[in-house]
Write a structure and sequence with these properties.
mainly alpha, about 60% helix, disordered C terminus, disordered N terminus, 2 domains
Amino acid sequence: MSRRRELNLAVVVQTASAAAVLLAVAGFTVVLWLGPGMGAALITVVAAVAVVAAAAVAFVLLRLREGPRDAEVVAAYRPVLRAEWSQLAEEAKRLSSAVSGADRTRLAGHLRAAERTLFDEQAQVRTADGITEATGHIAEARHLLAVVDALGRGGPRPHRGAPCFFDPAHGPLTVKARFNPDGGADRTVSVCSACHALLEAGEVPPSKRITVGGTPTDYWRAGWVSVPYVDGYWQQRRFPDHELHRLRRDLELTWDPSETELPPHLDREPPWYSQ
């Protein structure tokens, strides 16, 4: 069961518990008023109707909370991830001669898994969790290619850090930089070398854009629609945008909401999936 569905179920359970308490109080009042015989019969009928009504309302609420959100997330990110996969596949083809052994096997596995999810009509992604899974495969494949490229040029093995804040498709970070969007809160972001050069020149690098409700927007301004995508790339790391970070925390329930930073044991980048 997904964390989002667990959260929805928790809301329904809490609502049902409150309704049960109110029903018990009302039933006790009816028994005192009508007497044990008539009161018990009336309470039984009312309780049966209440249970059926509560079940129907819970079902509708779950469908309303889950269905449209999944559909909106998939509509916003499936074309984005298809474009990222195509770019990544071309890069893998260019570097294929330098990839060998276990890295080749892992790279091929991630590319195949993402391709199946994004392009196969039978297995096509239809949920927000599917977007996270596909994004995670792309992130893993992108890191492997960054390693191969760096080692092939005689450089050090790239640090396993967060991707470029402005566009995760730029690859792993080069440096940390300060960013203040439109007079908003100042924040530290991970950036690639090209975006860092723009920031140093006083320019704002263009962010990856998605379309939500027919309106193009920066992915990190899209609120809960971008949570599955961000989870795929950032995994359990803190996301630089405070509002989106809060939404991730609230939706995924991965750490204590009172904490301002990730607990140390979650900052070591554990695998996002079982090998």
